[in-house]
Amino acid sequence: MRFTSTIFKNFYTVSIWTFISRLFGFVRDIMLAAFLGSGPVGEAFIIAFSLPNIFRRFFAEGAFNAAFIPLFKKQMHNKEEAVQFTLNTLSTLILVLLTFCSIAILLMPFLVFAMASGFGSDSRFELTVYYGRITFPYIFMVSLSSLFGGILNSYGNFKATSAAPLILNIFLIFALLLSHVWNLDTGLLISISIPLSGLTQLLILIQASRRLGFSFKIVKPKFDKNLRRLTIIAFPAILSGGVIHVNLLVGRQIASHFEGAIAWLNYADRLYQLPLGVIGIALGSVLLPTLSGKSHLNNPMEMNKAVHQCLKIAAVLTLPATAALIIIPLPLVSVLFERGLFSNLDSQSTAKALAIYALGLPAYVLHKIFTPIFFSQGDTSTPFKIAVIAMLANLLLALSLINFLGYLSPVLSTTISSWMMAGLLYQQSRSLGFRISFSSFTPYLKILLATSILSLILIIVSVKSSQLLIASELRSFYLVFLILFCSAVYFFILWSLGINKKTFS
């Protein structure tokens, strides 16, 4: 039962801080939508900021943690070895990142064209290159932050790593306010705030790691057995991250040929990222260090317990969120973004994308849960192979649907390919000992029943009160009331069906 309570505790910590960060992110996005709308400056900034974010997922987050945490966990019993491994990894990472960032900044026009070729014939291209060169150093800071975050997570300290991303949103909000009050160049100011926030995050995590007794310095990189092992494990994970983000590249490329579509897809993505971050990413962050521990390595029973617990937590939280995003996307988008330069047409276009993205939300969450099973065993090649298959499917679907769905074609293709990826990950996880037994389905059926009742209520309310939720001056109040009411009803139904704390043990 100890690992059960540990997962609950760590998930609670990560999800709360992630939720707070995402709320600040919504404030940021509301301000961006109001100040910049779907105009050229807004779209240029979105693409410019997406470039370091894409590569962040290469060098940081999934790829790096997948390789570093399992190896670091094995050396934690010997503090001296752990420190040497960390210093060697840190120095190597700094060298690689400095080289990469320098080349990327020089080749920024080519990167922008690769992301949004539709910008090539108008003012958005030069703006994006300009903003991109300012924002790109963010990848350097956030990748190093991932190293220190991996150390903290390995010791069970999830608070600092989950709270650090909040800094980015605070800096962006401050920059937006400053530009608005003093009538400054909004695009330039928010671009500058990106690397400054990354530096602040890095300093916070360095200080948190020092409290664990780690003293950091730059050493001459030594390609020893540990670093070789790290490279061998990390390389497929980096490729896997790259393959996944080809999907994003495809979406951006297609959207760049439809005026306003870059902004529509971005704001839709931001909305479905809230439950994905709070649930899926939080569970994945907690699960990897847990499965990498000695008690879970090569122990299918312990692994099954941990994964099943995460799956039940995910089902309780993800299914109602999915239902809400599918049934009432327009009220959600309208309340959050429809003001200033963000029009009703923008809201309708964004809502369509959001509803389609939401169909894939459970699959995205499953991906975040199943992937650590492989990573904890040092297997990064299997997720890579599956990602390649999903990428090819996504590419073919997006291109074949573009004449029928326009800017929505990459949204639907991404959703379909995400379900394919989740299915293949589960299938392959069985070879590592993971099983979902028939007897374990009962809690999921109860959760599905509660979600179905919730969906029916949302459909009735959305039909009967559509004008109150979309056109009324009090739409924000009605939407908040609806969310609180439906949440209370949902959890009451779960309680009535016998879903309680014991269900997750």
Give a written overview of the molecule.
With 505 residues, the chain is mainly α. It folds into 2 domains: 2-436, no CATH class; 441-505, no CATH class. The protein contains 21 helices and no strands. It is globular and about 65 Å long. The mean pLDDT is 81.
Short description:
The chain has 505 residues and is mainly α. The chain is 81% helix and 0% strand.
Helix content: over 70%
Q: Oligomeric form of this entry?
A: single chain
Q: Quote the average pLDDT.
A: 81
Regions with little confidence, pLDDT below 50 for 5+ residues: none
Biggest sheet statistics: none
Q: Supply the number of structural domains.
A: 2
Instruction: Write down the overall geometry.
Output: globular
Order of helices and strands: HHHHHHHHHHHHHHHHHHHHH
What class would the helix/strand composition place it in? mainly alpha
* Structure summary, number of beta strands: 0
Measured by DSSP, the beta-strand proportion falls in: under 5%
Compute the CA-based radius of gyration: 22 Å
* Count of runs of 4 or more consecutive helical residues: 21
Straight-line N-to-C gap: 7 Å
